[in-house]
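Re: the multi-chain job from yesterday

Posting the exact lines I submitted so nobody has to dig through the queue logs.
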Amino acid sequence: MNLQEEIKNLVESLNQWAYEYYTLDKPSVLDFEYDQAYTRLVKLESENPSLIREDSPTQRTGDVILSGFEKFQHPFNLYSLADVFSREGLSEWESRVCKAIPNPEYICELKIDGLSLSLYYENGQLVNAATRGDGSIGENITENVKRISDVPQTLKEKISIVVRGEAYLPKKAFDKLNDERELQGLSAFANPRNAAAGTLRQLDTSVVRKRGLATFFYQVAGSSPKDTQEEVLEYFEELGLVVNKERHFAKNMDEIWSFIEQATKRRESLPYDIDGVVIKVNSLAEQDELGFTVKYPRWAIAYKFPPDLAETEILSVEWTV
Ligand code: NAD
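And the result, structure tokens for all chains:
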């Protein structure tokens, strides 16, 4: 097989898997397999830029917009995160950051395995909520998000702000949902991420309230009223938005890696699914300096956990909405 054919095959497979994952909420391959093929494609494309295809998944941000929902044009592009799968990969990213920024400081956060959301507050009131979609256009899911019990309809300050976060289904709520489905003769949801995505894209809003979705918020989209990521998270708490307490300040690779090791050990005992750790440059001015690629911030990276047995079982479970 020549290079062009290999690239074509990778693009076609990745696009089919993305359709199954984002549109059908029914993956047919492990995230690990998707990530490996994606990494191979990135390598081939960077060595042969003239062979980059327009339909390559490297040229767009993830999700596909479902029909049935109004489209929502985000005022800011909502980026995804670049992935690494080893300490070596992480160290390469850290070295790149250190070349641009003297003595950077980092915040390490858990990577919540749910559905990416952005919420729009005007004078403290929740006015819109949307999925990330392709980063530029998402789905307007305001009525569904209003039915997530931990999402404040009114912030504790009358400010106008756009916040990004993740909606997820806690493990207990996921087990309960699947038990109920079994009793009703319905097939099980594959995993909490698919169940959360399927729930938020329900046209019947009453279903959302019943299923017990929850949220964590982690970023201001657009200009931020604070100077560091740490301050943003503290401010969110003051506003009444839920933030994840499991975060860690780090000054170097050893400190980052020690948080990743702890997170890996604690992963199973957490009440929600995580698929990695996100490492972010703490200073927002330094984040601005590092900027973005077409798809990712340069100031953050996702370290993804290796696949586990539980994940392998996902694909053997039959799925319906
Ligand atoms: P991603 O899920 O790998 O990472 C980006 C997302 O992480 C952000 O958009 C945000 O929503 C989320 N996130 C969670 N916690 C966060 C935190 N603390 N800080 C910042 N962001 C946080 O990227 P993606 O573009 O949403 O999806 C791509 C991934 O989806 C692939 O790497 C693959 O694992 C999976 N996928 C799998 C298949 C399959 O068939 N199995 C197909 C397509 C995609």
